[in-house]
Amino acid sequence: MLSCFLCALSTFAAFVLASPVPELHISVQTTRRSEAGSDIAGANFPDPSIIQVSGVWYAFATRTIGSSIHIQVARSDDFTTWSILKKADGTQFDALPNLPAWVDKSDPATWAPDVDQLADGSFMMYYSATAAADSTKHCIGAARSANVTGPYTPFGTTSLICPLSRGGAIDASGYAIGGHRYITWKIDGNSLGHGGACNNLVAPYVSSPIMIQQVQADGITFLGTATKIMDNDGPADQGVVEAPSLVQIGRTFVLFFSSGCFVSTYNQTYATSTSITGPYTRATKPLFYTGIDGLTNPGGGDIAADGKHLLFHANSPAGRSMFQAVVSLNGRKVSD
């Protein structure tokens, strides 16, 4: 693995790392990218998702605490220099300015957006927000726009996924393959936990499964029932697995996800399967974790549809800044 200097205020980093999955002999290698755009360097830009449209890269992120912006947006022409989108008056652009009735408007805590392009050319955003019915939990909503940057208009007055009795839901991510469309997400059992790191490090550990659900072309109509594809491994994960993002390389499905509490042992890792619904085999070692080239609590990543461009966040003086990597994968071996 290359040893590289990482400035505390740097927005992006990259790495060379191989992490095999014994059963499938899958490895992942990332290559350093160094420069950050002046408008985003050091910015708090957590849980970034990524999409490329007409050769331009767009990133969407969780709101900054204390800001009235619900969903942040940044763009890049080269996946190297990024700028946060602003309005004509110089204020920050909000991709989701209006929230639906199911959201607790007093403290919406909008998290982990994901944007995907539908077959009809429009764009779907999945996002998490505090539920008005129970402000201790989040649910997942959907919104749509004719333009990739938005503004996005929520669908109706009800949430898309909201299992309050199981802790709510967060971190939805869309994925399309072979004319089929899916959503993955996390059931947020941590909100029902018994204490410790992220509220789920005291036995008995509460399930916080990652689910997958097939949907119709509209991105919101469910087909069949959801399937659990991952769950936390108790203390080994600090009761946390979350932030799923899928891609298929050859015949192998690669599920990028994070484990551990985001304030203590967060990491960016992955698992592989020959079936989209699993079972998934975890990598023997995370891609990124605290101590790798100066990173602290890296995770919350999203892989682009090309299976190469990866965004994630890690701690910085400004909060959780966005980092980038280029990943090269194939069915047996990964290389640049």
UniProtKB/TrEMBL annotation:
<feature type="signal peptide">
    <location>
        <begin position="1"/>
        <end position="18"/>
    </location>
</feature>
<dbReference type="GO" id="GO:0005975">
    <property type="term" value="P:carbohydrate metabolic process"/>
</dbReference>
<dbReference type="Pfam" id="PF04616">
    <property type="entry name" value="Glyco_hydro_43"/>
</dbReference>
<protein>
    <recommendedName>
        <fullName>Glycoside hydrolase family 43 protein</fullName>
    </recommendedName>
</protein>
<dbReference type="InterPro" id="IPR023296">
    <property type="entry name" value="Glyco_hydro_beta-prop_sf"/>
</dbReference>
<comment type="similarity">
    <text>Belongs to the glycosyl hydrolase 43 family.</text>
</comment>
<feature type="active site" description="Proton donor">
    <location>
        <position position="242"/>
    </location>
</feature>
<feature type="site" description="Important for catalytic activity, responsible for pKa modulation of the active site Glu and correct orientation of both the proton donor and substrate">
    <location>
        <position position="188"/>
    </location>
</feature>
<keyword id="KW-0378">Hydrolase</keyword>
<keyword id="KW-0326">Glycosidase</keyword>
<dbReference type="InterPro" id="IPR051795">
    <property type="entry name" value="Glycosyl_Hydrlase_43"/>
</dbReference>
<dbReference type="InterPro" id="IPR006710">
    <property type="entry name" value="Glyco_hydro_43"/>
</dbReference>
<feature type="active site" description="Proton acceptor">
    <location>
        <position position="47"/>
    </location>
</feature>
<keyword id="KW-0732">Signal</keyword>
<dbReference type="GO" id="GO:0004553">
    <property type="term" value="F:hydrolase activity, hydrolyzing O-glycosyl compounds"/>
</dbReference>
